[in-house]
Amino acid sequence: MLPVVQLKGVTHAYLGDNEASLAIEDMNLSIDKGEFVSLVGPSGCGKTTLLSIIAGLLQPSLGEVTVNGKRIEGPSPQVGYMLQQDYLFPWRNILDNAALGLELTGNLNEETRLKTVDLLNEMGLAGKSEAYPAQLSGGMRQRVALVRTLVTNPGLLLLDEPFSALDYQIKLQLEDLVSETLRHRGTTAILVTHDLSEAIAVSSRVILLERNPGRIRKVFTVPDKIRNSPPLYARDQTGFTELFHEIWKEMELAGSK
Ligand code: ADP
Ligand code: MG
User: What is the pLDDT of residue 257?
Assistant: First the structure.
């Protein structure tokens, strides 16, 4: 089967006035349909750069990225990208913000509007449709952004630390909800997170990057038993702690590089 995402020799340098800085170098990776992979690694190792390239927002300096076998030339409705900041429009109410992706792709109708309301309810935002972003907490706004991304049902979902600003309990609930929703839909996802236990709990593979320049240091496969448990219970599975420590050790080496 054709991989959903394929990176071949992807290299990116940011060009300044007098110098170029190499953000990522020679990244090679294939991600199959329905896979959920996490990217972890020290700050500045190129996680956001890589997601922006896969989203078609940034053209790599060298190498090739294909999504479903096609070289990426720009943003596409097939690829949902949730950024670190929520970027809600302050003058739109919550429902209108959440439905923005549907509106922009010409898919907003009575049915999809109701779907948006349902998803807002599921994310613990019942009764907030008419509110404005300024009236919501940071965690709530982040969940609205998540609904906006999920409701267009993209085949590939890119998530840049979507849970990092949330309270621990809400974060665990959302991990479960998102992972269940994606599994059910067969969505392929790439999650950036600095929470290693989250990475192991939700994904099939954990990809550890190192910095200066950003490279793939090591890829860890999550055992089936952990992968098939809901994230909340994955943490209790045998092998979880061992894998955590194995990746942790390697992370320390990557961070000190
Ligand atoms: P991460 O998301 O892993 O923290 P980034 O992809 O944001 O890493 O950054 C990778 C490297 O590229 C860092 O050294 C960062 O300073 C640099 N960088 C990121 N964005 C820009 C930019 N717009 N212009 C110049 N350098 C950048
Ligand atoms: Mg980042």
Answer: 65
